[in-house]
Amino acid sequence: MIAAIFDSAFPWPLFLGALFAGGLVKGALGVGLPLVSTPLLGLGLSSYQSISLLAAPVALSNLYQAIDGGRIVETLRRFGGLIIAQFIVTILTVKLTLALSAAQLNDLLAIALLLAVASMVWQPTLSISREREAKVGVVVGLLAGILGGVSSLTGPVTLTYLLALRLDRETFVSSISTIYFIAALPLYGALMWYDRMTSVDLVLSAVGLLPMAAGLAIGKRVRYRLNEQLFRRLLLAFLTLLALILLFK
User: What is the pLDDT of residues 38-54, one digit of tens each?
Assistant: First the structure.
């Protein structure tokens, strides 16, 4: 296994750079680790391995931001219906991801990326009462679970919904991190259960925590210093380019 981990053919610069870039964006905006790192890794690795290598970074970065935000219990109470619906539907649909060819998965990842870009550009404002939030949240969870089950990216639907609620920045980061952490459990669990994630992938995923953590720490500082609108525009342009590359890969 050691020989496989240090295989000279493995694209280490791409791997380390993709995890650092994903951590940087997540630290700055609260979201974006898989949205940035998955397509970047896909430039040099298979789509399935790209998803597998993000298991530890995605789970632990979201757990860290959820704990750091100090609003886990509040998030579970407010978005419990969304979280449960997304969790169940992801379990039911994740086998679709495992049945896709690499080309089909690339196309779905590209579409999910473009949906994320559209949601960040649109930034809808919805007027939803706290009483209606529970019902709307379940629908959002169902849609996010379907998208996450077939493409591995749950972000666009949930991101659009939380942006529409106009949460303050810290509540947004804590809430979406809690939701994403729980949503990742059935996805990566299924990859391990169906042997799509190898022991080598798990070790490499753990190694990926280092560049991700470095990016996350820098991004958190950037969050309070950089012009958020400029950073967001650069990110949107970057994600759009990555989506187009995946579509024509």
Answer: 888 988 998 889 989 99
Can you spell out the DSSP letters for 132-158? HHHHHHHHHHHHHHHHHHHHS--HHHH
Output the pLDDT for position 125.
62
Residues 6+ apart with CB under 8 A from 236: 117, 120, 121
pTM for the whole structure: 0.83
The answer to whether 177 and 80 have CB atoms below 8 angstroms apart is: no
Could you tell me which residues come within 8 angstroms of residue 107 by beta carbon, excluding any fewer than 6 positions away? 246, 247
pLDDT tens figures, 134-157: 899 999 999 888 888 776 777 778
Instruction: Write down the H helix ranges in 79-195.
Output: 80-93, 95-99, 102-122, 130-151, 155-164, 169-193
Neighbours of 122 (CB within 10 A): 11
Q: Report residue 229 as tokens.
A: 């609108």
Q: Mark 106-118 as b/e (b = at least 16 C-beta within 10 Å).
A: bbbbbbbbbbbbe
**Residue 249: per-residue pLDDT:** 62
Tokens of 12: 């280490």
d(CA 11, CA 8): 8
Buried/exposed code over 125-152 (b: 16+ C-beta within 10 A; e: otherwise)? eeeeeeeebeebbbebbbbbbbbbbbbb
For residue 38, give the nearest of 224, 222, 249 by alpha carbon.
249
